[in-house]
């Protein structure tokens, strides 16, 4: 036991100072996907490419708008939706701190003006 204690004192601190000083993610890190509603063509390619079904594109009842919904609790952060989007309306951010107290807070809905698919 004394040997382990002496070794740990000689090696010093092996952890980072997170969360006070978070490390920057690597250049190729894929965090939270976000949608740019102005660029979205509503083709549905992102929905079809999502391996977990975390993305939905539904008609908004009672209006002419559509709803784009992503469930970050089901999302794998794989980036397939961003690759499949023909208008590059989805991009992967470096955001990774998605802690919430309620599971429902992981579901984000964006209202889109209806466009006819091309």
Structural write-up:
With 118 residues, this protein is of the alpha+beta class. The protein has helices at residues 2-11, 45-49, 80-84; strands at 33-35, 55-59, 66-71, 90-92, 107-112. It has a three-stranded antiparallel beta sheet with strand order 2-3-5, with no helix packed on it. It has a two-stranded antiparallel sheet with strand order 1-4. The radius of gyration is 20 Å and the shape is elongated.
- Annotation field: number of helices: 3
Overall 3D form: elongated
Q: How confident overall, as mean pLDDT?
A: 89
Strand order of the largest sheet: 2-3-5
Largest sheet: 3 strands, antiparallel
Q: Could you give the order of the helices and strands?
A: HEHEEHEE
Helix content: 10-25%
Overall strand count: 5
Oligomer: single chain
Low-pLDDT sequence parts: none
What is the topology?
Layout: H1 2-11, E1 33-35, H2 45-49, E2 55-59, E3 66-71, H3 80-84, E4 90-92, E5 107-112
Antiparallel strand pairs: 1-4, 2-3, 3-5
Sum up the structure in keywords:
118 residues; alpha+beta; two-stranded antiparallel sheet
Outline of the structure:
With 118 residues, the protein is an alpha+beta fold. The protein has helices at residues 2-11, 45-49, 80-84; strands at residues 33-35, 55-59, 66-71, 90-92, 107-112.
């Amino acid at each position: 036991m004394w040997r382990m204690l002496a070794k740990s004192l000689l090696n010093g601190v092996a952890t980072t100072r997170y969360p006070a000083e978070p490390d920057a993610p690597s250049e190729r890190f894929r965090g939270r996907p976000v949608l740019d509603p102005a660029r979205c063509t509503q083709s549905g390619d992102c929905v079809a490419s999502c391996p977990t079904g975390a993305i939905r594109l539904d008609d908004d009842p009672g209006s002419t708008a559509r709803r784009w919904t992503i469930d970050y609790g089901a999302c794998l952060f794989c980036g397939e939706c961003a690759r499949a989007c023909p208008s590059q309306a989805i991009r992967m951010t470096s955001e990774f701190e998605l802690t919430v107290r309620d599971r429902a807070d992981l579901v984000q809905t964006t209202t889109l003006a209806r466009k006819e698919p091309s």
